[in-house]
Amino acid sequence: MDFLSLFFTDFIKQLQSPTLAFLIGGMIIAALGSELVIPDAVCSIIVFMLLTKIGLTGGIAIRNSNLTEVLLPALFSVITGIVIVFIARFTLAKLPKVKTVDAIATGGLFGAVSGSTMAAALTLLEEQKIPFEAWAGALYPFMDIPALVTAIVIANIYINKKKRKEASDSAMQESFSKQPVAAGDYPSTRQEYLSQQKNPGDNKVKIWPIIEESLRGPALSAMLLGLALGLFARPESVYKSFYDPAFRGLLSILMLVMGMEAWSRVGELRKVAQWYVVYSAIAPFIHGLIAFGLGMIAHYATGFSMGGVVVLAIIAASSSDISGPPTLRAGIPSANPSAYIGASTAVGTPIAIGFCIPFFIGLAQAIGG
Amino acid sequence: MDFLSLFFTDFIKQLQSPTLAFLIGGMIIAALGSELVIPDAVCSIIVFMLLTKIGLTGGIAIRNSNLTEVLLPALFSVITGIVIVFIARFTLAKLPKVKTVDAIATGGLFGAVSGSTMAAALTLLEEQKIPFEAWAGALYPFMDIPALVTAIVIANIYINKKKRKEASDSAMQESFSKQPVAAGDYPSTRQEYLSQQKNPGDNKVKIWPIIEESLRGPALSAMLLGLALGLFARPESVYKSFYDPAFRGLLSILMLVMGMEAWSRVGELRKVAQWYVVYSAIAPFIHGLIAFGLGMIAHYATGFSMGGVVVLAIIAASSSDISGPPTLRAGIPSANPSAYIGASTAVGTPIAIGFCIPFFIGLAQAIGG
Amino acid sequence: MDFLSLFFTDFIKQLQSPTLAFLIGGMIIAALGSELVIPDAVCSIIVFMLLTKIGLTGGIAIRNSNLTEVLLPALFSVITGIVIVFIARFTLAKLPKVKTVDAIATGGLFGAVSGSTMAAALTLLEEQKIPFEAWAGALYPFMDIPALVTAIVIANIYINKKKRKEASDSAMQESFSKQPVAAGDYPSTRQEYLSQQKNPGDNKVKIWPIIEESLRGPALSAMLLGLALGLFARPESVYKSFYDPAFRGLLSILMLVMGMEAWSRVGELRKVAQWYVVYSAIAPFIHGLIAFGLGMIAHYATGFSMGGVVVLAIIAASSSDISGPPTLRAGIPSANPSAYIGASTAVGTPIAIGFCIPFFIGLAQAIGG
């Protein structure tokens, strides 16, 4: 009773926070047909500045902290990233009208992390004055990369198995070598991650190029740059005079853009199986709860803060918006991008920001208080 | 005597203010052939931030204030917006070599509001430490929309009348139906605002789509978004850390761009009747004085501040630079854009910013002091 | 001994400063294949803001200072700019496989000034709390323009001489008038700076258009605009609230871009004679030392600060990145841009920022301390 009332008061208060209010505002003005456009160049530089700032915060914090504290939460991030993909593989993929490769790619996208969703969570925790480890944002790559790698690896194992089966089924038929490699409906133009194949059964997935591609993405490389500068240089002066004060304001613009983007993607949902919508609405909570549970273990074992547990939960609840899609497109060329991107942007991200952040903050306060 | 000396000292001092100095600087470097270019993406985001900030200020102020105070100034804004169009209809339109539809469109543009001119006025009032109602910027749409609607409606009534006359004149001639609808010299590709017509006399102007188009424009929708967020959310933290401190600096860049833009449009003036230049130089003062007079009534009746009266006068003196032109182009397709945009950008806006703002501030101080 | 230890401690400390750390970070992430891109529009507005800020600082400082102090450093800037071009003419141009016009153009580029390198020097001096004249940044055009003018003039004199020689050599041969004017290998499409020629020997270089083109470039016109506003207007409010606080942060982004740009140009070095690389690595130190020496004269003669001497040295050590290249391309169309731009961006600029700034600051401290 007390929990619920506390929770709802908090929820309403958080919807009024600039971060969520701009997200909702963006959806509303897009729904009303506003011609407002935030230029792409502005979005790019905002993403760069937000992730550089998160990296700098993490780097400076790690430089001044005990590295052993980071170990357990980082391990739990890796585990969560991998588990999320397997959940999609064994739930979403089994549903009618859902292609297995599309489901795996969707799992990869939901396992990967959205920098802007994480930035929103960090800001809301600050506004609520809930303390969290300054290096919490640095957990990002520990969940992001394992999720993408897992998705691409199991998608390609599935494709190979299917192909071997088809090959033996059609042994008497026309030479297999003329058939396209990808089994799905979509053209496969990039297959960098697949080793040079002599025969179909020989397809091996190289893991390192997937990791490399993830690390090179604009969001993650901005964050790792910030992390390295925070660790090895003395960026405190620009951090305090520039990256930190601009953070919330820039985030408000980005939230507006994400709200408008979410609304504009709603139309795409009609083209894909309705199960993607159901999955995108439920998955952020399930993923968040798994990470929240693991975070609680770290809370009791090593004193990981309740704020840190919320960050871990939100990283899990978020789905990648910038780096994830191109990596998946390259890694699983036969999956349909409008299946995984549409549902994630139009449903998953607004749910993660607008519902999961207040929910997990409320949960942490109810448990911790 | 005392009035004049006070006025001129002030005038010089205000030309040195960053806002006006950057405007003049922009004109000078453009005149000297500078290759400096401020990218479009930067201009868009500056306009977004300025108008969001004005909206936020207004929304927060209205939330904390007595709504009845706003009524009289808002009503006077509507009246001024409508009157300005009729002035153009009965003065500019009667002049030699001026097409009636072009004159009405020009009136609509001068009745509509420039967010950047208003931002300049608000900044100069602050610099001069003249208090004004925080919601004064929210008067913008109350003048902008009525002016655009009035211009489009009376332009189309005029076009229809003229057509009916032509139709009866040429009753014996070739079938009217093959003739283009628009009477002017310019191609009419968009006629969304005209109802489906069965015969020429049937042309009715739909008012709601014009209002909708105005509200959807990038400038007005940024402002209304800010207003709504200010009213219903708690944006104080980003307002204080981001939108408010950046306001003057961003405005200085926008003023520079407007100065360069004004200079680059001077060439266009040669192509249109010289009466447009005369009108653009005089109209800002006439419109401002009408609004100033109405504002004084509100000053004595409901205690509307002298600073607020200046804001009302400058809103009236300004001519729309962002949202107005596309709305008019769609609403009065037969009017010549280079007639109304050229004169407004090259003459009207610099006069409004560089002369009307100091003039009305001086007037307010002389009366109020 | 004491000098060296002081120098090296300082050097390491300065590499950790945000300015240099972002430059190095940019090179590293580019080398690692990061897909991070800072949009061009963002780079343009950053350059505009940095140079406007430097101009404003200079203008406000000159308004409040004794103009005679500026004379000697300004004269030394002019001398250094001219001398640098002649050094290239009589060293680089004499080396094997180096075309004379290419060498002169390279000299012009190294004599001209990089606003971002200068901004980095000013920031590092502030971080080290070494005082310098606020107008020191205003020395920029006094070195930049003479260098470009000298390079273009002596390149064209050389081309004309060569042509006269060829003309007399081939007097018996086919009519000269059909041959292209430029003697080099590259197509010459723009020859605005050459007077209309009746016969080859008549080629006269007009100096004023070169100066005009330099002044009109985006970097220099932003700086001169700031200078004029600082001198004649009262821009202190936007200076303090916007241009000054944003300076270091924006510079950090620009340094990152320059680091990435430097790395991406390394490939171009293979296409040109290796002497360009040697020249680009040594020249910044030589040029800086010449200016440092002249600056010391001003230090003893008129009390020019040691910080100011460092600024003068860095202006000399830097090579132009924004305005210089297009001016040289127009003025010496027969020179090969990839010879002078590649070496300057990939080698000269990183050396000037990463090595010369710490070196000259260390030198000034060792001498001054």
TrEMBL record, chains A, B, C:
Keyword Transmembrane helix among UniProt keywords: yes
Alphabetically ordered keywords of this record: Membrane, Transmembrane, Transmembrane helix
Pfam families according to UniProt: Sbt_1 (PF05982)
Cited InterPro entries: Sbt_1
Ranges that cross the membrane: 20-38, 45-64, 70-92, 104-125, 137-159, 275-294, 339-361
Top-level taxon: Bacteria
Entry keyword Nucleotide-binding: no
This protein's name: Sodium-dependent bicarbonate transport family permease
Organism field: Anabaenopsis arnoldii
